[in-house]
Amino acid sequence: MEKKWWHNAVVYQIYPRSFMDSNGDGIGDINGIISKLDYLQQLGINLIWLSPVYRSPMDDNGYDISDYEDIAAEFGTMAQMESLIAQAKQRDIHILMDLVVNHTSDEHPWFIEALKSKDNPYRDFYIWRKPAADGGPPNDFHSYFGGSGWAFDEASGEYYLHQFSVRQPDLNWENPRVHAEVHAMMNRWLAKGIGGFRMDVIDLIGKEVDAQKMANGKNLHALIRQMNRATFGKGDAVTVGEAWSATPADALLYSGVEREELSMVFQFDHIKQFWDEHAGKWRSKPFELASFKAVIEKWQTALAHQGWNSLFWSNHDLPRAVSKFGDEGEFRVASAKMLATALHCLKGTPYIYQGEEIGMTNVRYETIDEYRDIESLNLYQERLAEGVSHEEMMQGIHANGRDNARTPMQWDDSPNAGFTTGTPWITVNPNYREINVAAALAEPDSILWHYQKLVALRKQYPVLVYGDFQPVLREHPQVFAWLRALDSERLLVINNFTAEHLTLDIPHQMQNWHGECLISNYAPRDRLAVSIELQPYESFALLIGR
Ligand code: TEU
Ligand code: CA
Which residue range or ranges hold the Glycosyl hydrolase family 13 catalytic domain (predicted)? Predict the structure, then answer.
């Protein structure tokens, strides 16, 4: 496999609204991020995925952009953004900008023009349809944020498509002028020295609207290859596409080396598998290791030699990793470290979502009024109108609501966790007095230093980057284990995914294995035996001696 500069890099995702507030208005901002670059350099990460900071009316916290080449006033200025890019680069950290081009804000000049008349030159930048015979929406397509995916425009008597909020009209990617505008914008950002792009719902831009085939439309890959050749393909930028619909076969189309499309995609099988078939994310299914292992193994195996995996437990749309896959209580630290070791010892690019490195947890606001996320608020109303109880919806929001990931970053135990000297835009998780960066920095055995070690190991041991994934102990109901093999090097990774003490019987051919324990969350283990006693959530990686 052709080696890439970013293959041994780890990505840190920043949700700017909740990372660090530098001017006391309760909203995180770019100067706040700049003030924490030394902290990120110390962690060792080399890429930052920066969620949107562009001008936006913030209907969806910035994923509704009104100007792709200006910075939202609450986040700062373009000069500050350029300073962030420069100061990060001085620390060998490269910025991945969030590219949100499946839709714009309804305040984007293109849409304002489009609304003026049917023959406005920008009308065809969006997707319009005549009403159905009954005067209603053209079809029953449902928005991801509730309600119809069609909004009526009185002036023209037509409907426009919005897969997300009514204030996020979809762009018409069948229009070559849209291609040209977006490519030019991307090239201007690349010229500012960014490291690449994270691409929002990129699997939706090839939508076949009248067939209601939104994801994986027939032109999708041609559009991405065209984008590659017109912009980032000319350099060695990193690109990661968000693709909720992706299968391993799709991922090979997106990230196959000879495909000239993307570096990798975010696929969500290990997330969706715990969503209820009918109620979706609003009713969680209990975590179950066997099917979880099967999904991870499927992706590790399918992209073994072709393509490249992205590795993540959470992001700004998902619940906190330790709450979803670990233990928030007695074993919060042990399980957070186990989840870190497991993720960083798989093959692909690991992503750390802000706060994951200190084991931040989900939040449980008592009332719906404390929530801010448009998806949670809209679906709460819609489901209650359909007869779902308040209690059940609050349970769903507590388990899978997006605000779980968006509570302010917990820097120390001062008021509002040191995130702001003002009133935070969303309530700080009350456990910040215990869970915060200052406490983690002061505790040599903290989750934070465990992440720092994993990031460093990735730069020291090629087996962690290029080693083949080979499952072991596949049938074990509580342990997820595998080998990474590269040339003569073998790394054994064993993870107890439960709070139980376990006696793990070691397969005969592995019983005398010994070597160097690269990382563990209990006492280091440098040799196996007939069986070993595993502690709750115990996890270690053993580099097998020659
Ligand atoms: O997310 C796509 C998406 O489908 C999720 O928003 C959705 O919430 C899903 O149910 C996961 O929980 C992307 C961005 O990541 C998200 O923040 C934006 O809201 C969305 O696109 C629209 O831009
Ligand atoms: Ca601020």
Answer: 13-406
